Amino acid sequence: MNNIKSSLESVKKEIENYADELIYEGKMAFSQSRFEDANKLSNDGIKLQEFGKKINSLIDDWDRNFNKVLEFHQPKKITSSPKSTRTGLSVTFPNGNIVCETKASTTFMKILWIIGFERIITLGKTVRTLPLVSRHKNNHPIYVENQYQGYWIITHSSTKEKKETLEKISKELGLGLKVEIIN
After folding, report:
1. Looking at residue 80, what is its pLDDT?
2. Which residues are paired to 127 by β-bridges?
3. Other CB atoms within 10 A of residue 127 CB
4. Does pTM top 0.70 for this prediction?
5. Residue of 53, 166, 57 lying closest to 104 (CA atoms)
6. How far apart are CA 37 and CA 29, in angstroms?
7. CB neighbour list of residue 119: distance below 8 Å, 6 or more residues apart
8. Checking phi first, is residue 150 left (phi over 0); if not, alpha (psi -120 to 50) or beta?
9. Taking the CB of residue 128, how many other CB atoms lie within 10 A of it?
10. Residues near 128 by Cβ (< 8 Å), separated by ≥ 6?
11. In a 3-state reduction of DSSP, which class is residue 103?
């Protein structure tokens, strides 16, 4: 929780630096007989000083009321589960052509492109309630979308799910694709 106090002190320092700039600019304006500018800078400086006092009050408040209390209530760290070994996809077409990129998501997107994005859109396939392929980005805060050949593809799924999706599409369209997970 020291981050909060550090942040408040950082804001205080920024205000002090800005106040120093106002003082300098005010002196320059006054020495150049730009009295209206000097007066405005002076008024801004007074407002800034008042704001600085509020920041000081917040720092004092923090020290008095929260700093000690929150030491006993440290947030728990959220750790992710260990990832499994990275796997890829290999897709074999009936004519013997094979697509096997270094990443499963790249293979997945390339196969969808070869099949035809418009055909995939027509099938109405979804991943986590979002369209698998879309002409426009969904801007979902969690699910990863990648742009490929002008379309947006949801790639936020496991390699196994990507394999199953390609197999379903192959079956629905009668493509005869052989989809394999590789290490």
Report:
1. 59
2. 130
3. 19
4. no
5. 166
6. 6
7. 173
8. left
9. 12
10. 143, 154, 156, 157
11. coil
Handedness of CA 42, 44, 16, 18 (dihedral sign): negative
Cβ 101 vs Cβ 88: under 8 Å: yes
Helix axes 2-31, 35-61, angle to 10 degrees: 160
Q: Report residue 13 as tokens.
A: 């320092």
Whole-number Å distance between alpha carbons of 160 and 166: 10
Instruction: Render each residue's pLDDT in the chain as its tens digit; 183 residues.
Output: 467 777 888 888 888 777 777 777 888 888 889 899 888 888 888 888 888 888 888 888 888 877 666 555 555 565 656 666 788 999 999 999 999 999 999 999 999 999 999 999 999 999 888 899 999 988 887 888 888 888 999 988 899 999 999 999 999 999 999 999 998
Of the candidates 166, 164, 146, 163, the residue with the CA atom closest to the CA atom of residue 155: 146
Enclosing H/E stretch for 179: strand 178-182
